[in-house]
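User:
Care to share a sequence and structure tokens?

Assistant:
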Amino acid sequence: METGDRYEPYRLVDADGVAVAPVAAFFQELLAAGKAAATVRSYGMDLLRWWRFLHAVEVPWDRATRMDARDFSCWIQLAVKPRPTAAKRRPARTVGTPNPVTGKSTPGPGYAPSTVAHSETVLRRFYDLHRDAGSGPLLNPFPLDLARRSGRAHAHHNPMEAWAPERTGRYRPTVPRRIPRSIPDEWFNSLFAALRSNRDRAMIALWISSGVRASELIGVRQCDVDPGQQLISVVRKGSRARQQVPASADAFVWLRLYQQDLHGLVLRGRTRPVWWTLRRPFQPLTYHGAHRMFERVNATFGADWTLHDLRHSAAARMVRDPALTLTDVQWVLGHAHLTTTEIYLAPRQDEVVAEVLAHHARRADRLAEPVPPPPAPGYNPEALNVLFGRSS
């Protein structure tokens, strides 16, 4: 549950409404390490699933064994994920099928492999903390699988190759490699034309030109906007550092139009938020409000792009610009490692599909060309090729 307290933003409670003390201590460790409140919430959702499982099997958290962890890992990969009412009304035949516009597969009924892997990592760290503090079991129910790492760590490592994962959890599933999906330019133009307000146009223009995360842009204050230098200051998600990021001139034009629409309707101030709701009473815009706005625009075309796809689209545009280096794109996106930015060098799915279809069309044209009969005996084939312009 959310508390509204900056020193304890989230709290896990049991069936009686009492805060779970070992989880509260784990949350305090996360906050002391500089983790954001969103990280605490994400870790709390993993611990909530584990606590519900322990309640169902009637096992105390400090008496959980590796057999319980194994059963939980099997259950979470087979369980049906609770979904909102709108998702429950979705026909069963559409679950897991690709979207006809974007090619994305709709979410399946269960938890994604990335969610299962994240849960295993969080629970392993949770029990490591209490094992070191002496407040939990001596054996971690979610151990590391040393069989996946034979020999000494980094033995005979090639300096020209990337570092491989040093340790892997025993119950950690294999997560498929995800390819970033960007919005093609023609579809983006259609989406932008369907926006209904200057606020939405300003936000989309800033996202697609700056490449910042959705939460980073929503947290921008009025003092963070510098139209003269075409810069906005955002707080990075990972490092929590404030960084100035350039954006396009068109984005600041839409932003100025939106500010003119709000003139006299909201209080102005350097620390006031830039983004507000469109309906009275005006409230600061939240991430969920921006997400619903983009969902409504997608619904007009039957697409399912997300706000994070705008960041992927901006990164893909920058990478394909020969005047920008990969390190420039890394700095703009705020990536800690260059290998994270390199994933945008891969071609988009629609580009690969178009090239392969063109290959099949060219091959069909070559097969459809009539094959001339062989020359009669006594004629020189090379002379006929020169005479009729045939390729040898």
